[in-house]
Amino acid sequence: METPLSAASEIALASIRDRAPTAFELAKRFASANFTLALVGGSVRDALLGRLGNDLDFTTNARPDEIKKILKTFADDVWEVGIKFGTIAARKGENTIEITTYRSEKYESSSRNPVVEFGDSIEGDLKRRDFTVNAMAIELTGASPIFIDPHGGVTDLLKKELRTPGAAEDSFNDDPLRMMRAARFASQLGFSINAEVLAAMRALADRLSIISAERIRDEFTKIMLSNNPRVGVTTLVDTGLCEKFLPEIPQLRLEIDEHHHHKDVYEHTLTVVEQSMALEERIGGPNLILRLAALMHDVGKPKTRALIPGGGVSFHHHEVVGSRMTKERLRKLRFEHNIVDDVSKLVFLHLRFHGYGGGEWTDSAVRRYVRDADELLQLLHVLTRADCTTRNQKKAELLAKNYDHLESRIAALMEEEELLKIRPDLDGHAIMELLKISAGPIVGKAYEFLLELRIEEGPLGKERAEEELLKWWKDNQN
Question: How deeply is 305 buried, as exposed, middle or buried, from its count of CB atoms within 10 A (0-12, 13-18, 19+)?
Fold first, then answer.
């Protein structure tokens, strides 16, 4: 159904003229070649919401080779990574453009990927889209722009509701990743999810098993980097989807009884994520490693939970167990190695501060804290502060005061000793020369000895370091 220009389309067109005039230039090229071109999907949605960015999505009746031919004479760069799905991408100035031939996709029930069939109409293309708010288009190649909204996307946008163009079961059976997209859009846009859509997500959660780890990871990353990851995570947990790819999170909903009291670990975890986000300005803005560490920091608690006779609960060494679990899970989700290592390291270190107590750490303990955190020190500062969710105001103030003290100790020692560049007073060459030995494992052991001594006592100076090394060498000759 084609509708005349409405208030909604006027808003969208004004946004496109202001932020993406390239769209109109491109439409002229397609019209000259006797093809249609329409801005579509998320680009139309974002134009209506006043948040249109530099990424523009279009659909057309031109076939991929014809799209490529037009773009070659228009864009700065053209690439064909998605050509088998009917998509050609390009860059024009600051805009990234993706143009896809009208599609009518079909999925095999056991397949991770769609079987692409090109369609003949934009209405057919819009029908196969995930949600009604993404199933709108603005045809730009006619005598005047035409706003196309066959499934009531504008109404749902005003209601801030996510609904599928057809039956939700059919949509999610075709592409189960759309269930995760529902959680993502709820997080990113602040939309509610239609009751029928939620019911289908619960009923079809098992279908997520056919989706590759990489695609799941990418959707989950977008949820975690959204303005409100709590909404997305809660949706995933409540529908059973989280159990299929990140079961450690729903397992945080530990059973609580009247005799063995402990805080709700699941709610505590979500609060830590939010509190870490509130402190992200300290580290330059949204940070995936920090947010994942906040989400995973207590995943070792279910496995280490022990009831204390007479009441209470303990979780001894949950940071050690949790670090190992985190590394294993993030690897399965195909996160990059540095993300896996950094997140699991933060989980391992997140309790280290609590050994600081009332501020009685020695200089050597402070040096070790900095050395162990290394380049993650600022993230560890934020995570540790965010991990305080107690309702006891005096306790919270004391913890904050103690951490302020620790940070000031670190700052003072850094100024005096350049803690982030802690090295022994003698390098490997000096060690070999003094001990009259050649390169080998013993040089590494000597280096480690001097490093530990440096951490314990601070800078030694060359003369003292040589004395200590010679003593060590003598004691270890046998």
Answer: middle
